[in-house]
Each structure stands twice: as structure tokens, then as C-alpha cells.
């Protein structure tokens, strides 16, 4: 973990002053927001791409751009990609708009200073950014406007949620809704306070599923992220869950929610109390969540981000309904081979026996749980699946659990022609070799893990 610097942050101030901001974060999975991304794995030759534009612990005067194909292992695309012409850039929220440009909106000042504006910049390639303008939020007596966040509704309308305080109580924030009144995103409706969430909540994040808006505000008294719903974007919202209902713990904020390829939802949030940035997944529409895990590589470095999910060209490809063998990308004489129902990585070559070659040959088929994924069948008809995180072959028992255990999504490998296989029901976990055994393990963000989880599909040995 990268140590947190002594540079003051908004979170540090809030703890020190026992302040009560209510920064509203709003992002939805909609066409204008996520481009062509869907809650399914991309087709052959395409890839899922997640982009974040965080400011860093060490510097709130610039933002860097990171990307990932699995929403777990984020890699730096451009350091210090955008620096505004004046002031600061914090809490940057990013979308891809219907004009194909990427836009960020952000907090323009550090916590010490009055901040009545929010900033805007745009990019055609996520790497080179152009400052657009600073917008003064028209609220009488405004003291601070923090954490503006995009929300694109299902009808394509573009909104921003911004948390604002007034001079008579500069640390009590209320979330306000702005709506773009032109497609250039340069004109905005009058601010309207969100109803039902109110003051004393910070970083409210909202997604829409069907006709329901699901909100995740942080309660600034208890320091827990709560859960609320409404039938209209502006509310009124009803808070449904409080306390440690999701198992994320206290002193958590900055929630950002997006949908994974397997249809589940991933929540990112800032564990500002312990210096980590976490993620947690739900596969039952927010009723239960996985134990929070620190994001590899960027935990302790990145701060307050949202996510753009897209489907892009140039991804990996693997044909189905054919037989293939799979060679390790970093141990090039070693191949997948079934040994007593377990999948191992022994040396396989021209001098191997017919039985050894047959045990290293597999039929690639559509995923049992999701046809956009992949499953692998041996000569006897058993399927590759994970059990207690060990890769093994078993007969299909017809259960949904087995189908999920036996389904993998295709991701790009570390070398030309190589691919990686992400577990369908354990997102961010990959087939990788360790001590020449194949296991399903959580990515730790290292180059070694990526190499150990990369395999080259080759002509079948048998």
C-alpha cells in the first residue's frame, strides 16, 4: 500500500472538523454515459474498457487517466493528463457524451477556499484534454460547490448532481440537481435540491434500473454508506438501509457504482479512514455484497473517481466449437493438462505420449452460464470449473452454480496472441498457474500475476 501523504484532503478536513457535507455523486448506466457497453461480455475481437480519471493523494492540481478491461486491475494510461489553467481539480467525474467526446466535471478549489464554480474539460481520446469553462452554480449565498457528478438518464438527458453549502453554514452540504439545456453541455437549468436525502449526507451516488433510482449516500454522522430509492431522479428518496448494512464498515465515502459484464454491480469507495480504495460486488440487486477488497495497484493512490464503461474494438478473439491446447505465455514448454481430474501445467511436447497429448487437448464451447463467455470440455465430456479455487474437471450436474463455476470471460493477455480467462462468478479472479497448478485467484495487479494468467491458444496436441 502506498502511504498517504500529509497533504490535507477533503476527507481529512471533514474528520477534523466533524463537518457534515453531503456531496452528491450521480452516475447511471445509459447510452450517453457508457457508449455501447452492455452487461455482457464483448464479442470476439472486442473488449470491455473501464476508464477512471482520479486526482491523486499527492496532487489535487492535476488528474491522471487509468484504464482496465476487468474493473479490477487499472493501469496508467496517461499521468497528469489534465491540469486546469487555474485553481485545483478534485472529485473529477467522467462520461462519454453522445458527441463521442469524453467530458469531466470537477471541484475547482481545495477545501480551505470558497468554491462557487465547477469546472469542465473534454477530450476526444481520453489522453489529451481541453479546458472548457468554469460554471458558477447559481445558488444564493453559495459558499462551496463540491463533487459535481454526471448522470445520464434513460431518455438521454444529461444531469449533474453537485453538493452545495451556503455562507451561513459552510460545512453543511445539500445535493442539488442540474440539467443540461443544450447538447453542448454549456447551459444548465436552475439547481433543484434532491428531496429525501437532504443535508448531513455526502457523495450520494445514483443508478437507475428500470423505473427506480437507487441512491447510495454516505451518512456524515455515522460514516456509513446508506441506501435509498425513488421513482423520480429529483426524489423524494426513501432511505432503506442504514448502518453497516452492506458489510463495508465505517469511514467509507465516495461510492461509485457500475455494472459488470456478468450483470452484477460493482461498488467502488474510498476507505479514507484506513487509506485504501475498495470495491465490493452485488449479484442480487444490492441486497447483499461481497467482502470489500482493496483495488490492486491504485489503492492508496487514486482518489474520488467515477467510471466510464465501453465496448471497444481490438480485443482478444477465440473461436468456439473447436479443439485447442493452451500454452503458458511465460513458460513456453508447458501446457494445460488434465491430471487425475485436476488441471496442471506440465511440459508437453512432440515426445509426449498419445494419452498425455489427449489430456492436453480441450474443446472450446460457449459458456455454460453465459453464451458470450467460454467453457472448456475434455475428451470424456467433463468441464473445466473451479472448486475451492482449484481448477479441475467434473461432469456437468445441471446446476446454476456449476455453470457459473465453469464459465470464463476472455481478456487480453500480456503477449501477442495470448489471452486471460476471468472467472464468471468471481470477477477479477483469473485462471493462473502457481507451482505448475492451475487455480482461480484474485488479481493482485502485478506484472507477474498477469504473466502467470496469460495463455496462448495453440493447435490441439490431439
From TrEMBL:
Please name the InterPro entries in this protein's record. Answer: AbfB_ABD (IPR007934), AbfB_ABD_sf (IPR036195), Glyco_hydro_beta-prop_sf (IPR023296), TAT_signal (IPR006311)
Provide the alphabetized UniProt keywords: Hydrolase, Signal
The family database entries (CDD domains) matched by this protein are listed as: beta-trefoil_ABD_ABFB (cd23399), GH43_Bt3655-like (cd08983)
Show where the Alpha-L-arabinofuranosidase B arabinose-binding domain sits: 325-456
Q: PROSITE patterns per the record? A: TAT (PS51318)
Q: Name one Pfam family in it.
A: AbfB
Q: So which residues are the signal peptide here?
A: 1-24
Give a GO molecular function annotation for the protein.
Answer: hydrolase activity
What is this protein's name?
Answer: Glycoside hydrolase family 43 protein
